[in-house]
Design goal:
The protein is of the alpha/beta class and 254 residues long. It has one domain: Aldolase class I (TIM Barrel, Alpha-Beta Barrel). The protein contains eleven helices and ten strands. The protein is globular, with a radius of gyration of 17 Å. It starts with a helix and ends with a helix. Bound molecules: 5-bromo-uridine-5'-monophosphate. The site of 5-bromo-uridine-5'-monophosphate (5BU) has 17 residues, from strand 10 and helix 10.
Length: 254
């Protein structure tokens, strides 16, 4: 199996290349899901856990005291600690609308998020719309091929059609949110949420698998971990555990 950086040499999207090289350089395939609701909490995670991660995933619209300064600070930490920013926006509208949602409003996602994601339910027009805004800026898009939650409708034919849409837009689509590697194409980066060191779930349908299962057995590339880390007594120590588990699983695969 190719290493992350060997895969980088085969890809064309600048964000995909950047990410794959960064992961090998920094020796981490851990993405933190920083689902906190105050600016200070988010920036604390970015600064303290930044050295352990390849990506900081945000839900920028849950921040109660959001202002433009937060975006500047996030970008500063992304450079300081060498990680990418992923706004988990899950766009789901027609191409013309998502264009505005991606570049305008108060969040201006395309200006600071290296990566964002979209549902495939509207059809390929959603990729076209996002691409018009994101590609000139060198951004990358993930499609939701599968979800981690119980009863998800993203399966079977829906997942298959999503893969086709990605293959037809390889300049901009850099991979998937998925529970496993779905196509053996080195340029698609697979990111998996629903990860904790112990299997189980929450009371609202989330389902958890271990880093080892996700990376080694299911051949995904990146573990996305939220509450498993930021709700721990010592988030930094916990992040190091996830980082090590994810990296060992990757090494045993390559
Ligand atoms: P958790 O605290 O590790 O359960 O957080 C998981 C994060 O991943 C959270 O930000 C979700 O919005 C996100 N997520 C997910 O859990 N499942 C999915 O299928 C997708 C995103 Br897409």
């Amino acid at each position: 199996m190719l290493s992350y950086s060997q895969r980088a040499d085969l890809c064309s999207n600048p964000t995909a290349i950047h990410l794959l090289k960064l992961m090998d350089r920094k020796k981490t395939n851990l993405c933190i899901a920083a689902d906190v609701v105050m600016k200070d909490e988010l920036l604390k995670i970015a600064d303290e856990l930044g050295p352990e991660i390849c990506i900081l995933k945000t839900h920028i619209d849950i921040i109660a005291d959001f202002d433009a300064d937060l975006l500047i600070e996030l970008q500063r930490f992304s450079e300081k600690h060498d990680f990418l920013l992923f706004e988990d926006r899950k766009f789901a509208d027609i191409g013309n609308t998502v264009k505005y949602q991606y570049q305008d409003g108060i969040y201006n996602i395309a200006d600071w998020a290296h990566i964002t994601n979209a549902h495939s339910v509207p059809g390929p027009g959603i990729i076209q719309g996002l691409k018009e805004v994101g590609l000139p800026r060198g951004r990358g898009l993930l499609l939701l091929a599968e979800m981690s939650s119980k009863g998800t409708l993203a399966k079977g034919n829906y997942t298959e059609e999503t893969l086709k849409m990605a293959q037809e837009n390889k300049d901009f689509v850099i991979g998937f949110i998925t529970m496993r590697q779905l196509i053996d194409d080195p340029c698609f980066i697979n990111m998996t949420p629903g990860v904790q060191l112990a299997t189980g779930g929450d009371t609202l349908g989330q389902q958890y698998y271990t880093p080892e299962k996700v990376i080694k057995e299911n051949k995904s590339d990146i573990i996305i971990v939220g509450r498993g880390i930021y709700e721990a007594d010592n988030p930094l120590a916990e992040a190091k555990k996830y980082r090590e588990a994810g990296w060992l699983a990757y090494q045993s695969r390559t």
